[in-house]
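User
Take a look at the entry that follows and flag anything odd:
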Amino acid sequence: MEDSKRVEELKAFDDTKLGVKGLVDEGITKIPSIFHHPLDNIKRVSESGHKDYTIPIIDLGRIHEDSGERKRVVERVKEASETWGFFQIVNHGIPVSTLEEMLDGVVRFFEQDSEVKKEFYTRDKKPFIFNSNFNLYSNAPANWKDTFICDRTTNLPTLGDLPSVCRDILVEYTDEVSKLGSLLFELLSEGLGLDRTYLADIGCNGGLYAVGHYYPPCPEPELTMGITKHADVDFITVLLQNQIGGLQVLHQDMWIDLPPLPEALVVNIGDFLQLLSNDKFKSAQHRVLANRVSPRVSIACFLTTSSHSNARIYGPIKELLSEENPAKYREFSVPEFLAHYSKCANQIPPLMHFRI
């Protein structure tokens, strides 16, 4: 597509302020060319004959009263973070009713009256942002999803900043995830052989961004993607998803399905933690497929630093380094990393820019 024509189509889509759901509501049967993706030549595990790839499921239920169980959980978290970069957790302490209400809240936001929803549509930096494809005007094909982003730490939103249809549950749920994040950073610190509070002490859990995704049914899912292949730019991500599926993790050069598990949360390692751990923990690339059946709904909480610590310099943790394991990355600040990430357009992993 010619660049000028593509920009016109992108702007026309953006100007509707209705996102991908607006296209579906119109009853389209062919998706616009701005959503067309090139074919991926990486095999899915289902095509390879392998049956034994299962992303770890870790039960946190007894770690507070049984020290032996805590050690076993730390070992499982360590192994999953080294091997997969992904795991699911059950008995994590967040009530099932809160999980269900949060997913319902995401649905209520995206399925509310269009004129009300339009009021939140913006590409400006605000405490609460709704749009379709934050990088819509990049050279990459657009993804088949709409998104809201709520900054629960840097720009602490007042209740008036948040949409009434999901305001209370968004505050309640993100508060719960923040507490859970503190526990996860303890387990990850211990998995690295460090003091329990090490990652918290250096500010890894100072900030939280809640990102709600709505993937409408797609009339031509084979031509597009829900989210293209990427790794997360944070320390860890905690994901809540409905039962539609579509999330895949790149593992040993194959796409592995991560099927939804009722009442579970997905945890994955981000680029920052791979760098801090000097490649001991892996920030795995992942993607979401489009589907033609039913809306996929998810909310990802990105745990990262707060704006107050953006001047902090991070690098490979010195306690993990030795003559046999020298630093593989140079030091960075979060703003520097994010500035580079914005230029990558998913072509080259941003971590590579910081390798020594």
The longest strand covers residues 207-215. The longest helix spans residues 167-191. The mean pLDDT is 92.
